[in-house]
């Protein structure tokens, strides 16, 4: 059944010649009590006409208004860009005392060689806690919204290929997944010394888990990483993060000094709380990505 | 040299964005979006932000693309064109019907 | 109205604004929900490109302290990188949320076109 036929049948339904309510909504249309034979589906037709004319008027107005809006916004922004300080110069307003403080004092205060990691997980750790909770909330909402695919059981999917027995995909995958996991763990644990950190490492580990589930099947993946494991890991990571940063509430909201000192910059066990916080954020991000994959593929976690 | 390279990459970004908006097949749009994210990762390297490059390559080109693909697969839209026709011209026939 | 003199020097910001514009027009004018979500992602990356190009300085290195030199004249601005890093990861969760909402809309109305969804929602089995 192609799109043209569907269009034609929908148009017939709108004209009132055919009743598609059962196919569209899954339940038969309720019988109206005394059906007048001369005027078939009067209200359906009239609502259609009203909606159609409304929609036409609205679409014309919408197109004009949004074109004007786009042009105004884009013109204003392009005009503003021509007055901005030149690209790549060192004396812009963004290079201020905050930048000096982060670069010059950052390593001594936080112990992190990577200034970005020191910034987002020490100076602005509370902000990153909020980000982790955004990911957690998004996962919960997707779990609520996604349901089992009803069509998946009825028909064999035309794109279904069992990659477990595919010689190319299987061998490349089993070669690639350990490398990806090790690389992700490296940039996760080395986030305060080199580029990387919780977000990038978590995303790479999540991609490796997704690849595993893609090649070896979700049954096998969810046997290893079940719903229970995901719940435990995410809750432990978020709870650890919240507890380890909540002491700032009891010390006058000045959480620049920590119980754990910065240590020697450059060592793997240094930089105070940044390494465990990186691991916590990485766990949350990896579990979120993997959960998204499983939910979009199957509709449920277990 | 740096300027030439980055201007070429930015032009590639703009072309990819426009062709994403104009292609009719949704799967093609998703694949072009993944390519767009890969170009973006190279631009992050040139802007001296390696953290962003790793994250963009893993998240933008990998996870987002796979999520879009899984959605299309779930909606059975993979081999179908985007139904981008205008609204069915129903006004005349509906007026006739109203006269009945 | 007179334009400033930095229009062509700021090509990076110009490209960011153009990407934002492309994403914004896709979001407003395309009627397909998936295309709208892709347009929103392109808009996001335009904003990120703008932020990161504000922090870039010529002939300086990434903000990773090498050889113990903590001289502010050697590194680029780390603040936009930190902001964008969190933004990229949040944008993928927003994408997943919007895609799941799209799946639910499709399961109810069997179409991805916003106009058809509007008309079908006004046509609920004869009851307006």
Provide a concise account of the structure shown.
Chain A is mainly alpha-helical and 302 residues long. Chain A has a domain at 113-298. Chain A has 13 helices and no strands.
Give an overview in words:
- The complex is a heterotrimer of chains A (302), B (100) and C (128).
- Chain A has a domain at 113-298.
- In chain A, 68% of the residues lie in helices and 0% in strands.
- Chain A contains 13 helices and no strands.
- Chain A has helices at residues 3-15, 21-25, 42-81, 97-110, 115-123, 125-145, 150-154, 167-189, 198-216, 218-224, 227-245, 247-250, 274-298.
- In chain A, helix 4 packs across helix 5 (115-123).
- The longest helix of chain A has 40 residues, at 42-81.
- Chain A is extended.
- By secondary structure, chain B is mainly alpha-helical.
- In chain B, helix 2 runs antiparallel to helix 3.
- The longest helix of chain B has 25 residues, at 50-74.
- Chain B starts with a helix and ends with a helix.
- Chain C has helices at 11-29, 33-55, 78-109, 114-121.
- Chain C has one domain (11-121): Helix Hairpins.
- Chain C starts with 10 loop residues before the first helix and ends in a 7-residue tail after the last helix.
- With 128 residues, chain C is mainly α.
- In chain C, helix 1 runs antiparallel to helix 2 (33-55) and helix 2 runs antiparallel to helix 3.
- Chains in contact: A-B, A-C, B-C.
- Chain A binds chain B through residues 3, 7, 10-11, 14-16, 45, 48-49, 52, 55-56, 114, 116-117, 149, 151, 157, 159, 187, 195-197, 199-200, 203-204, 206-207, 210, 289, 292-293, 296-297, and chain B through 50-51, 53-55, 58-59, 62-63, 66-67, 70-71, 73-74, 76, 78, 80-81, 83, 85, 87-88, 90-91, 93-94, 97-98.
Number of helices of chain B: 4
Number of strands of chain C: 0
- C-alpha end-to-end distance of chain C: 51 Å
Overall number of domains of chain C: 1
* H-E order of chain B: HHHH
> Any low-confidence stretches of chain C, pLDDT <50, length ≥5?
none
Query: Biggest β-sheet of chain C, characterized?
Result: none
């Amino acid at each position: 059944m192609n799109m043209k036929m569907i269009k034609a049948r929908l148009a017939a339904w709108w004209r009132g010649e055919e009743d598609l309510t059962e196919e569209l909504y899954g339940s038969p249309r309720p019988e109206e009590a005394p059906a007048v034979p001369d005027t078939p589906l009067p209200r359906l037709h009239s609502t259609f006409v009203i909606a159609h004319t409304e929609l036409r008027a609205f679409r014309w107005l919408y197109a004009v208004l949004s074109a004007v809006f786009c042009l105004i916004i884009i013109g204003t922004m392009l005009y503003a860009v021509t007055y901005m300080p030149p690209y790549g110069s060192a004396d812009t307003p963004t290079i201020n005392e905050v930048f000096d403080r982060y670069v010059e004092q950052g390593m001594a205060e936080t112990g992190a060689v990577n200034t970005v990691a020191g910034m987002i997980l020490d100076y602005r750790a509370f902000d990153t806690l909020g980000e982790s909770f955004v990911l957690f909330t998004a996962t919960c909402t997707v779990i609520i919204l996604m349901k089992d695919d009803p069509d998946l059981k009825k028909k064999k999917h035309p794109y279904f290929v069992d990659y477990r027995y595919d010689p190319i995909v299987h061998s490349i995958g089993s070669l690639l997944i350990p490398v990806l996991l090790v690389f992700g763990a490296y940039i996760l644990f080395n986030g305060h010394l080199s580029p990387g950190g919780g977000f990038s490492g978590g995303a790479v580990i999540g991609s490796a888990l997704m690849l595993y589930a893609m090649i070896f099947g979700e049954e096998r993946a969810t046997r290893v990483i079940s719903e229970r494991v995901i719940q435990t890991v995410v809750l432990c990571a978020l709870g650890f993060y919240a507890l380890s940063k909540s002491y700032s509430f009891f010390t006058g909201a000045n959480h620049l000094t920590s119980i754990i000192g910065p240590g020697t910059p450059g060592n793997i066990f240094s930089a105070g709380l940044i390494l465990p916080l990186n691991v916590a954020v990485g766990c949350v991000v990896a579990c979120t990505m993997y959960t998204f994959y499983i939910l979009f593929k199957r509709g449920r976690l277990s | 040299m740096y300027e030439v390279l980055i201007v070429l990459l930015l032009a590639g970004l703009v072309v990819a964005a426009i062709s994403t908006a104009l292609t009719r097949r949704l799967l093609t749009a998703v694949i072009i979006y993944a390519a767009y994210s890969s170009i973006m990762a190279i631009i992050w390297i040139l802007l001296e932000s390696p953290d962003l490059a790793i994250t963009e390559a893993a998240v933008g080109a990998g996870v987002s693309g796979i999520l879009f693909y899984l959605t299309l697969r779930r909606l059975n839209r993979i081999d179908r064109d985007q139904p981008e026709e205008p609204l069915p011209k129903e006004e005349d026939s509906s007026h006739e019907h109203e006269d009945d | 109205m007179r334009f400033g003199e930095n229009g062509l020097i700021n090509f990076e910001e110009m490209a960011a604004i153009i990407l934002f514009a492309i994403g914004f027009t896709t979001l407003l004018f395309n009627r397909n929900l998936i295309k709208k979500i892709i347009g929103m992602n392109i808009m996001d990356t335009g904003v990120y490109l703008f932020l990161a190009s504000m922090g870039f300085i010529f002939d300086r290195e990434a903000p990773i302290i090498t050889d113990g030199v903590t001289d502010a004249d050697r590194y680029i601005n780390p603040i936009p990188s930190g902001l964008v890093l969190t933004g990229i990861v949040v944008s993928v969760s927003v994408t997943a949320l919007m895609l799941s909402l799209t799946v639910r809309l499709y399961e109810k109305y069997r179409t991805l076109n916003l106009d058809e969804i509007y008309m079908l929602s006004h046509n609920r089995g004869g009851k307006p």
